[in-house]
Amino acid sequence: xxxxxxxxxxxxxxxxCEYNCAFANSTDKEPKYLxxxxxxxxxxxxxxxxxxxxxxxxxxxxVSCRHCFDxxxxxxxxxGVWTKNADGTVTMDKERCVGCQTCIVACPYGCIVLNDxxxxxxxxELCMNNVIGEPMCVKGCPNNAIIFEEEA
Length: 152
Prior knowledge:
The chain is built from 5 helices and 8 strands, in the order βααββαββαββαβ. The chain is α+β, with helices and mostly antiparallel strands and 152 residues long. Strand 4 and strand 5 (90-92) form a beta hairpin. The longest helix has 9 residues, at 16-24. It starts with a strand and ends with a strand. The model has no long low-confidence stretch (mean pLDDT 88).
């Protein structure tokens, strides 16, 4: 399975991965990014991406779902929102999420966040649920600190 890996030595902390993620996931229906203008789509909007930069002043890196072999979010969810798929990805059924945040507490990597209106949760799904089909955070990283490759 292909996964996102981050080389923290190369991460600049520029947050472009967050903007590219927000851009790629800016709509569930008609993809706004087909306008091909990230500034036009995100201008004057507070973004809430599925990936976050963690920066303690000494080191920074992108925090993204690790699609764990034994995902704690799947085990902890009281509503069956999370699924470990045959291809190794961990995905969610957004319609089933009641916003209890149990999965947020269960995730050892801090990869699950609240959605824009704080009524449910979300996480990186490798841009598989939008028409891009590949992680925009990887494509938009200016220093190639984020890579998408087969797990060794």
